[in-house]
Amino acid sequence: MKKMILIVSMIACCICGSGCGEKGDIVGLVDVAGKITYNGAPVEGASVAFSPASPSNETRSAAGRTEADGSFYLITHTSRGILPGSYKVTVSKKTEPPKPMSSEEIDAYVQQNGKQPLVEKIEIKDLLPEKYGKTETSGLSYEITKGMKSIEITLE
What pTM was estimated for this model as a whole? Predict the structure, then answer.
């Protein structure tokens, strides 16, 4: 699931950043590191997305994923960093779906039970307040400036 969220985030960045030229040639990116905490504790495995506050040719979406200590860095298109500008920010973390059975495990199940295993309905839940996952409700916005080094995102 972590890979799926990151892939979706990266695809969104690619779509929003299309037409920017060759890989890695986005001029003016600011390499900003960040940290996300929720109720004072670092948030591991969260997806963070920075969307331009108003559409323009001067900014592009950027996304990242938090480490165990809540730290993250942003990727714009395929390059590390984010363009200066005003952004609305979302942060989300979902439950991990159970690992699917391997073909060997399915074969063993069939041999032991005489039938295929039932497919269970998987419920994905938000592990952070849902409001932080939508630009309209997150209440998170940041102004990225040249030379900026870090961002602290505190969720409550």
Answer: 0.71
